[in-house]
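User: Hello! I'm new to structural biology and keep hearing that structure can be predicted from sequence alone. Could you demonstrate with Peptidase E? Please show me the input and the output so I can see what each looks like.

Assistant: Of course. The first part below is the input, the amino acid sequence of Peptidase E. The second part is the output, the predicted structure written as tokens.
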Amino acid sequence: MKKLYLASSIDQTAKSIAKDIGKDPKKLKLAFIITASEVEKGELDWLDDDRNGLIEAGFDLFDYTITGKTRKDIERDLGNVDVVHVNGGNSFYLMLQIRKCGFDEWIKSKVNTGVIYSGSSAGSIVAAPNIEIAKKIATAEYEKKLKSYKGIGLVDFIILPHWGSEYFKDLYLKKRLEIAYKPENKIILLNDYQYVKVEDDSYKIVDVRDK
């Protein structure tokens, strides 16, 4: 069964996701993909919060980056993981590294064999068929190198994370909503307490505050 968990902020949702998986998280090996954070400036407290959220939920995790890796490296290093969690940061830089090493094709094949894909923020955005909505000044350099907005395509919808966050308000109202406002875009808005649970071709939005 194909199973994905696409969150806005994994630190707020990890415990709910761990419970929903239905297995002892201590027995699940999780790769914490930090690639998107490699070009982020300033304090990375949010990265630590996300990592700690997964640890507190009970997952046995290790940090990993796909930057500079080959498809063979990834198959060797991640071949035995149960959960691949792609964390947040710069979506366009992340997608560039994904394409360079063939992570997109690898993860699609693994998800189809039962490996769980988990995403947070940028990690949820790149699961979509199109990542154009992630555009901002900090992504321009990597946007040019990508040459297209194609995402991994694990799902047929686009996640807009951090909905309602004061920090992202200007970015959304002045940029992202204008980009997203197209009839062909299937959009799901997520606040930091929500995630989308995907099982095969069905999905639902879960709000952890309702539990």
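User: So the tokens describe the shape?

Assistant: Right, they're a compact way of writing down the 3D structure. Reading them back into a model, for example: The chain has a mean pLDDT of 93.
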